[in-house]
Amino acid sequence: MRRLVSFESRRQPVVSRTVFYGRLARNALYSLGFVSVSLFAGACGYIYFENMRLVDAFANASMILASMGPLTPLMTDGGKIFASLYAIFSGLLLIGISSLMLAPVFHRILHRFHVDEHDTDPPRRKR
User: Fold this and answer.
1) Does residue 35 fall inside a structural domain?
2) pTM for the full predicted model
3) Alpha-carbon gap, residue 67 to 14, rounded angstroms
4) Which run of H or of E encompasses 37?
5) Does the residue 3 lie in any domain?
6) What would the pLDDT profile of 60-109 be if each residue is shown by its tens digit?
7) Of 66, 83, 85, 110, which has the most beta carbons under 10 Å away?
8) CA nearest 101: which of 14, 2, 5?
9) Listed residue (118, 90, 114, 89) closest to 8, CA to CA
10) For residue 38, what are the contacts with CB-CB under 8 A and spacing of at least 6?
């Protein structure tokens, strides 16, 4: 089974800039996909629970996804519960997207610190 995200190990050299930029682009595409699906789900939720028009539902979903809050007041109890859960989901998604986008950068920085120029460490024994 192929891993979704794979990085080089400590014993391998730091990858080239081309591979690094490819990782950044791949993670940006994943992030864009997550945001698009979340925006679609949010707009569908507003249409279903609040009976909003498509444009208003899209605007409200994008505002909550951007952590700014809804544009129009919510009228139904179902819409209020949906908006609350969607806001919590959006906050967690923000953290996840940030982590996904910064993972290649942090890995490259940490890998540079840990890569051995001349591997002089003796092999470790298993206990």
Assistant:
1) yes
2) 0.76
3) 36
4) helix 17-50
5) no
6) 999 999 989 888 899 999 999 999 999 999 999 999 999 999 988 888 88
7) 83
8) 5
9) 114
10) 65, 89, 90, 93
